[in-house]
Amino acid sequence: MTEWRPDKLARRLPNLQARNRLQAALRQWFAGEGFVEVETPILQVAPGAEVHLTGFTTDWELPDGEERERWLHSSPEFAMKKLLAGGIPKLFQFARVFRNAEGSALHHPEFTMLEWYRADAGYETVMADCAALLRQTGVKELRWGEHVCDPLAEPERLTVVEAFQRYAGVDLFATIGNPDALSAASGIAMHTGDSWDDVFFRVMFEKIESRLGMGRPTILCEYPISMAALARAKPGDPRVAERFELYVCGVELANAFGELTDPEIQADRLEADMDMKEELYGVRWPVDDDFLAALEHGLPDCAGIALGFDRLVMLATGAKHIEDVLWLPVR
Q: Which of 14, 54, 66, 242 is at 20 to 30 A from 224, Cα to Cα?
């Protein structure tokens, strides 16, 4: 690894200085909103809840010789919700998080997640937070490749069903659970063993994501309930969840939920996701019983979001690769 060499560091330095300015501006915004900045452990019983995520695992050796398996977290979500249950009503964190088997211009195995939660608030409040945070970038345009987006513009709000209809010509609810129907309606080819989720993600990647957040940010909301294990169902329409993603210049920047607070439903969903993970990949990790205990104690109505801070810096600086905004990459 030679990225520390003066010539290579000097080329990244303007981006890194912009990174520091942006982080300071966001901290100031959160302070003005009454948030508490927290730090939670990286080592966790389980790295997260995503079925398709690959984690980093390690062994914790206790002084008495006992060993316990622990994971590097992919998100501080479970830990931060425990603090919500403990009585902290507004909290945020710049967390170092880890995702194995990932690497591209937009992915790095270790990166910085900006995550925040509000008690007694809905996910529409967090949508407003997103618009406010984009205004803190201090730039006139956000850029990814040839695409630009105005950070001051009011975000477009688009449901997943609307996006599939507009960009793929698909009545999404008519295909739920039927990968063949989704493939036929979208024109996206099936692969052997594909599930409905597999085809859904391929349609998103090939026909939809690249068209979101052009000119102004896009809030893509109301995901099918099966794709939001940690989110509550939307009142009045149990087919969809209170989940949204923020897109800028075709780049997914953040993922948010109106948080599920029912411990029994949450436990069932986590176990179901681990069953699916084991079936697909031959791997499962434990459900965090302490997280479920926090829900049983009483998680307030709340909403939360995880935003890729490195990606935000990339968009604000026009960087072409995530490593261009990291002080030092993993090697």
A: 54
